[in-house]
Specification:
24% strand; eight-stranded mixed beta sheet; alpha+beta; nine-stranded mixed beta sheet; 374 residues
Length: 374
């Protein structure tokens, strides 16, 4: 049997062993921490069902050629559900036969599970750079395949579509020298002003969760209950995938990050800070120490996790982008989230009509209570 014939004959099977799953995932390209067993089990405690699927092709034996950690959420009082493969599936996207077969298998899964849609958002690069953008031929080919098979760009991009990545092959001196002058100045200012950074443990997570709620209230973004973050951070920390770092002044935590390490990269996935001592620039020193920690772990890339969709001052992430840009990382644009549905009427209802109805209810509640709508 040829490799192409074997690929077309392969099907997903459900994996039941955490160790086997994580070993298979670690061997695959385009694997991500959000596809890990620990993340799936965490999401299963918050309304989702974890469905870890692997696919073997030809003579690979038990070694998976593809993996998709599917999350399923049932829609109340209906026989339908939605399916999501966060930052996946993982496979060699350069293998056109394999990627098309994996998409076909996911489409079959969506029909079998009576899903309104299945969403994927693999970290396949669409382009690199901001001013001199370089387009990825592979990203273009994957998007053509998706569109040809009836997948559509999702209106709901759950993860950040763009990010900033900093390669870590350079020395610390070279990394510092490449930063913007003001960023270097603020790192040194924090050190002169008595800010220190230390590794955290699970005992520090409640403090970080409280800071994160404070950050959300100050910066105007919606946060979940602290219990959600404590559960997720603990799940990743307990299996060695996450590391908290805390910036302190006079022994009091004033800023923190949660770093997630998977494969050859470290992701700055969460950041939090207090209002106090912000003039001491703790976040600059904290990011520098996070980069140093990532290098010490042998990571090749530091992922700043998030950049604007549109690079102008109207974007909600513009201020965050200006901070991250000072560290001289490169903008990376991914192909983003794509949805497949075999139920177009239900899909339009779920993605268009229901959100508009909920927005209307929120605006009415706002007017009734004297608050501004929106």
């Amino acid at each position: 049997m040829s490799d192409k014939t074997a690929a077309r004959a392969a099907t997903f099977k459900r994996e039941t062993s955490p160790a086997t799953w994580d070993q298979a995932l670690a061997r695959l390209p385009y694997a991500h921490a959000l596809q890990s067993w620990a993340w799936g089990q965490f999401k299963a405690r918050w309304g989702w069902r974890s469905i870890p699927l692997t696919m073997s092709v030809g003579g690979n034996g038990w070694e998976a050629a593809a993996a998709a950690h599917v999350l399923r959420r049932d829609l109340p009082r209906t026989p339908y559900c939605v399916l999501y493969v966060p930052k996946g599936p993982a496979l060699n996207y350069a293998d056109a036969t394999l990627r098309r077969h994996v998409l076909a298998q996911l489409e079959h899964l969506a029909r079998r599970e009576r899903a309104v849609f299945i969403k994927i958002d693999p970290e396949v690069v669409q382009s690199w750079g901001l001013e001199n953008e370089r387009v990825s031929p592979l990203g273009a080919a994957v998007m053509r395949d998706l569109a040809a098979r009836g997948w559509r760009p999702s209106v709901e991009q759950i993860q950040f579509r763009n990010t900033v990545e900093l390669p870590l092959e350079s020395t610390e001196e070279q990394l510092l020298a490449a930063m913007k002058q003001k960023t270097r100045y603020n790192i040194r200012l924090a050190e002169r002003k008595g800010v220190s950074v230390r590794p955290g443990t699970t005992a520090d997570l409640p403090t970080i969760a409280a800071m994160y709620q404070e950050t959300g209230a100050r910066d105007g973004f919606t946060t979940r209950p602290s219990e959600y973050y404590l559960d997720g951070w603990s799940a990743l920390t307990n299996v060695g995938l996450a590391q908290p770092l805390l910036a302190e002044f006079e022994g009091r935590p004033i800023a923190a990050v949660i770093l997630v390490r998977f494969a050859d990269r470290v992701i700055y996935m969460y950041g939090a800070s207090r209002d106090e001592a912000r003039e001491r620039m703790p976040n600059h020193l904290l990011q520098w120490e996070a980069i140093r920690w990532a290098r010490a772990q042998g990571a090749k890339v530091y992922d700043f996790w998030g950049a604007p969709d549109v690079f102008d001052e109207s974007d909600r992430l513009w201020g965050v982008w200006r901070f991250k840009a000072g560290f001289n990382g490169e903008v990376v644009r991914f192909i983003g989230a794509w949805d497949y549905t075999s139920r177009p009427l239900l899909y339009r209802l779920y993605t268009q009509a229901i959100p508009r109805y909920l927005d209307l209810l929120r605006s009415r509640r706002g007017r009734a209570s004297g608050e501004m709508p929106g």
